[in-house]
Design goal:
The chain is an alpha+beta fold and 99 residues long. 15% of the residues lie in helices and 10% in strands. The protein has one helix spanning 2-16; strands at residues 55-59, 91-95.
Length: 99
Amino acid sequence: MRILGVSMVVLATAGAAPPLPIPPIPPPHPPTAQSAPMPDPDYRAPLGAPPGGAQVGLSNFRVHRPDDSQGYTPGSHFLSSEEKRPIQTPGLTVRVPLQ
């Protein structure tokens, strides 16, 4: 009885699937006058606008690690001493362009 039920579900699912599109038919004689496209070995990336100089920004250096709740209740995980701090000490990020 189970086999009959499973086979009915499989047949009903397969019958409800949309039909696949017809693939394109290749031409009878492919063009021989054109070569295949090749990458340009002399191509260079466009030069962007040079940065205006050193940039200084305020940033938070808290490390967001994946949740390793091994053995803890769902939604909780072990906190390191750095993560237990209520306020993280902000830091400065300095970017200096090299030319």
